[in-house]
Specification:
The complex is a heterodimer of chains A (about 140) and B (about 425).
Chain A: E1 5-13, H1 18-28, E2 33-40, E3 44-51, H2 54-63, E4 68-77, H3 84-94, E5 99-106, E6 111-117, H4 119-131
Antiparallel strand pairs in A: 1-3, 1-4, 2-3, 4-6, 5-6
Chain B: H1 10-31, H2 33-41, H3 63-68, E1 84-88, E2 96-100, H4 102-118, E3 126-129, H5 137-148, E4 152-154, H6 161-170, E5 175-178, H7 180-192, H8 197-200, E6 205-209, H9 215-225, E7 228-235, E8 240-246, E9 253-255, E10 260-265, E11 279-285, E12 296-302, E13 304-305, E14 317-318, E15 323-324, E16 329-331, E17 334-336, H10 338-349, E18 355-362, E19 365-373, H11 383-401, E20 405-410, E21 417-418, E22 421-422, E23 425-427
Helix pairs in contact in B: 1-2, 4-5, 6-7, 7-9, 10-11
Classes of the chains: A alpha+beta (about 140), B alpha/beta (about 425).
Bound molecules: zinc ion.
Chain lengths: ~140, ~425
């Protein structure tokens, strides 16, 4: 199974209720959200979601007037082994692979780190981690 | 060149213009109470027009004047001599109605023949005319010009895009007459239908107009169809399409000034501006019979250029319309047209984005916010990159338009729309 996860990145203005509008909209269409992260500037932000049905979620967001795109990321389970975060950082640093950002998620099923590497270096990163014996999640 | 007058000496053209202007002024003074009253108020007699500069003594005509005399109040011939009427839809109030005698129709055919000739068309060509036929001057204007040069005309009119594309291909059309946005829509449709459009189509050039068009859209139409883009300017109050168009040597449009006398005025003071300066285009018809019109305020912003053109035509050239007088705003003394803002954004980001200009006061100074709708084409997953888009646009606006605007990125479809069109300017200072 592919170790690359599709993350949906959505442009949001920083206004009250915007995030709950999006999550409510998806939930009411039976799309479950397994990961949520917001990166923001002063007057806007990028909301990053990993959801159960990508194409349906994208169509719903388009319809509702949100701009969104898919971004490739990968996930490492927190409980996989102690220091999983550090070992990823080290393995990538060794190959001079730049991490654009990382964030943690935790839901009922799992605790994990999400990593974003540029598309150009993504495959290289995944191979590097595999050869270092670091296990990536096929889903979160 | 269709007509040798297009390349005549300036002296000859000026002589023709003056004698035609004198005839027109006499005609409206004697036949139209509206003009007689206006002339009398200003104490002007047709005999006072002894040189072309004297045109500046004459009163302006506004769109509202046409509306006030709806439908035929300004006509100078009995209806028995009127062979055609056209009408432009008014978004507010009554439409404007224009009429043509047979002589007017002949002038229209003549100037449209010049337009087609400038676009490289001859009797051997097949013209696919996708302008709407009807009260709108586009369809019939482009139709009669094509007939005049002896080309084969396909009167496709608007709509039924799939069928139009099939006909355009099967009939081997070489010239496309359409609005630029419809031309692009045709391409998208052709691509979807899977036809190998560049191989299957014989198009070599197009005559486009009838709507405000950014340089980006012009280039895109030209590129996707692989054809020469010729712009055609006109308005029904003057004749319809055919007032001016560009030759293959430049993007500036040659004005058929032996029939339409152009001036550029400051839209606030009405003062005539020198060549090269931007202002409102004012046109006086020199040969119209049914509805002669004196110093008509087009509301379009452009500039005039008299440098010689590589094609040998000596007729004055105008810039493609920069914007509308109604849309222009002044920010800390700098004139800003929404179309320029659109242009800067498109050049900076490589795509056309929806925008809105909001002018307000901050203390004594003007402050300008520009909302820019983010779409999937420019969306990045990185906040830093989105911040960069904002900064880049601000920077380009400062460099190109000399305005310090605060750019704010907003969600798609968040800019207010009025009857389907985005509201480009919100001026909170007034
Ligand atoms: Zn020329």
């Amino acid at each position: 199974m592919s170790k690359i996860l599709k993350q949906l990145s959505i442009f949001v203005e920083n206004k009250k209720g915007e995030l709950s509008d999006i999550t409510t909209l998806l939930a009411s269409n039976n799309i479950s959200i397994s990961s949520i992260n917001l990166s923001d500037a002063s007057d806007f932000g990028i909301l990053r979601l990993i959801v159960s049905d990508n194409d349906k979620a994208k169509a719903i967001l388009d319809e509702a007037g949100f701009s969104s795109r898919f971004t490739d990321v990968f996930a490492v389970e927190v409980s996989d082994h102690v220091g999983s975060f550090n070992s990823v950082i080290k393995a990538l640093a060794k190959e001079n692979i730049n991490i654009e950002y990382t964030y943690t998620i935790s839901n009922a099923q799992i605790g994990a780190f999400i990593f974003r590497i540029s598309d150009r270096e993504l495959n290289h990163a995944i191979k590097t981690l595999a050869s270092d014996g670091i296990n990536l999640l096929s889903e979160v | 060149m269709w007509n040798k007058i297009e390349g005549e000496s300036r002296e000859k053209i000026s002589q023709t213009q003056l004698s035609r202007l004198q005839d027109t002024v006499t005609r409206v003074y004697e036949l139209t109470p509206f003009y007689k009253e206006k002339f009398d108020e200003l104490d002007i007699n047709p005999k006072d027009i002894t040189c072309l500069q004297d045109i500046q003594k004459l009163p302006f005509t506004k769109k509202q004047d046409l509306r006030n005399h709806y439908p035929f109040g300004l006509f100078t011939v009995p209806m028995s001599e009127v062979v055609r009427v056209h009408s432009s839809s008014g978004t507010t109030g009554k439409p404007t109605v224009v009429g043509y005698t047979q002589a007017d129709m002949d002038v229209w055919d003549e100037v449209m023949a010049r337009v087609y000739t400038m676009a490289g068309a001859t009797a051997k060509d097949v013209v696919h005319n996708a302008y709407g036929y009807g009260l709108f001057t586009g369809g019939l204007g482009f139709d009669s010009g094509a007939k005049k040069i002896g080309a084969t005309t396909i009167p496709a009119s608007s709509g039924f895009t799939d069928r139009q594309i099939m006909l355009m291909k099967d009939f081997n059309a070489t010239i496309l007459a359409a609005t630029p946005s419809f031309a692009l829509h045709m391409y998208e449709t052709a691509k979807k239908s899977g036809s190998d459009y560049l191989k299957d189509f014989k198009l070599k050039s197009g005559v486009f107009g009838a709507e405000p068009t950014s340089d980006g859209l012009k280039e895109e139409v030209s590129r996707v169809w692989g054809i020469d883009y010729h712009e055609v300017y006109g308005l029904s109050e003057i004749i319809g399409p055919g007032v001016s168009s560009n030759c293959k040597h430049s993007k500036l449009l040659h004005i058929n000034e032996d029939h339409f006398y152009p001036e550029i005025v400051d839209h606030k003071t009405g003062k005539v501006l020198p060549d090269g300066e931007r202002g409102e285009l004012v046109i006086t018809s020199l040969t119209k019979q049914a509805l002669p019109i004196i110093r008509y305020r087009t509301g379009d912003i452009t500039s005039l250029h008299r440098e010689p053109c590589g094609c040998g035509r000596t007729m004055v050239r105008m810039e493609s319309i920069v914007g509308r007088v109604d849309d222009m705003i002044i920010v800390n003394g700098v004139n800003v047209y929404p179309s320029q803002v659109e242009h800067v954004i498109a050049n900076t980001e490589g795509v056309t984005l929806n925008y809105q200009i909001i002018a307000d006061k901050k203390g004594h100074l003007d402050k300008i916010d520009i909302l820019v709708e983010v779409n999937d084409d420019v969306l990045s997953d990185s906040v830093a990159e989105m911040e960069k888009i904002k900064k880049d646009i601000q920077h380009s606006l400062a460099n190109n338009l000399y305005i310090n605007a605060n750019v704010k990125l907003v969600e798609p479809r968040s800019i207010e729309r009025s009857m389907g069109k985005a509201v480009r300017v919100v001026d909170k200072r007034v």
